[in-house]
Design goal:
By secondary structure, the protein is an alpha/beta fold. The protein has helices at 46-49, 77-88, 101-112, 128-136, 140-144, 147-151, 156-173, 183-193, 198-208, 275-278, 280-290, and strands at residues 5-11, 14-21, 28-32, 54-58, 94-99, 117-123, 237-242, 263-268. Helix 1 (46-49) links the parallel strand 3 and strand 4.
Length: 292
């Protein structure tokens, strides 16, 4: 049965909504969604993994039915990673999978709380150091990331949420293939985005990030300090990449081996940023073949 079990759990004194697929006695796989999704967005992939794993998919801070503080300061990487570290807790270590912004948290766990992570899976998400390099270069990734400047504006959540989420729906469906997105699924997204304070909370992830974006053709040199020795992924790492992604370009993970020496790369042709919706069977096979 594909329907998940759901619960609300207190983490740091605040409610977090969590979905589960698979037998709780199986090895655990923490699945971290990105923007603008929520834990239910794993509904195509998690059932394909649930015979081998207990899949755990929280709505992260600011999203869905989880806690959504108003202030940007509540969305620093350390706090986002702290949420998931507390969720893992005594069940450590476990495998962690992250997509998009969920990859930022997954990398944070692997780099700063390595005792919690046995294996790291990233799907079309980026390590901060290669990504900052490319966003600062003034080239193709800088151009592809210009939308972040819009999202960081103080009123972007109000503009995107106006008129029944009209602009948010357009934003979600822009630049990528969305033939996987049914009217029913889109309505479910709108329901999650429309919860009080959620759209602001979701976008606060962008506002709180210290990463800088160059204007196209104008490289930046005043960049955040990202020391390589502190940003190492020492556990086995699988990178699954939808090759037609227009938001995160392949150059954004060039040289990732310098930060993740035990790295395996798998490319998914015919998929873009939404590979877990477009090619769930192929993504599941890549994960199952790689896991012990």
């Amino acid at each position: 049965m594909n329907a998940p079990r759901s619960e609300t759990r207190e983490i740091g004194g605040h409610p977090f909504h969590i979905r589960h697929w698979g037998d709780p006695a199986l090895p655990k796989l923490l699945m971290l969604h990105g923007f603008p999704e929520y834990g239910g967005a794993w509904g195509n992939l998690a059932p394909l993994l649930a015979e081998r794993f207990h899949c755990i998919a929280p709505d992260q801070r600011g999203y869905g039915q989880s806690w959504a503080p108003e202030d940007v300061s509540e969305y620093t990487t350390s706090k986002l990673v702290g949420d998931m570290a507390a969720l893992i807790g005594e069940d450590a270590p476990m495998a962690v999978l992250g997509h998009d912004w969920g990859a930022a948290v997954a990398y944070g766990l692997a780099m700063f709380r390595p005792e919690l992570v046995s294996r790291l899976i990233i799907m079309n998400g980026v390590h901060p150091a290669p990504f900052q390099r490319e966003m600062a270069a003034g080239g193709a990734q800088s151009e592809a990331s210009q939308y972040i400047n819009y999202l960081r504006r103080p009123t972007s959540h109000e503009e995107l949420g106006a008129d029944g989420m009209a602009k948010m729906k357009d934003f979600f469906q822009a630049r990528m293939k969305i033939d996987w997105l049914s009217e029913e699924e889109l309505a479910a997204y709108v329901t999650e985005w429309s919860r009080p304070g959620r759209l602001n909370g979701m976008i606060n992830w962008y506002r709180a990030s210290p990463l800088k974006i160059a204007d196209p053709g104008t490289p930046l040199t005043d960049l955040p300090d990202l020391p390589a020795e502190k940003l190492q992924v020492r556990c086995p790492h699988l990178l699954i990449w939808g090759m037609e992604d227009r938001a995160l370009l392949p150059a954004s993970n060039a040289g990732l081996e310098d930060y993740a020496p035990d790295l395996t790369r798998v490319e998914i042709p015919g998929a873009d940023h939404w590979l877990h919706h477009q090619k769930p069977q192929e993504v599941a096979r890549a994960i199952l073949d790689w896991m012990p």
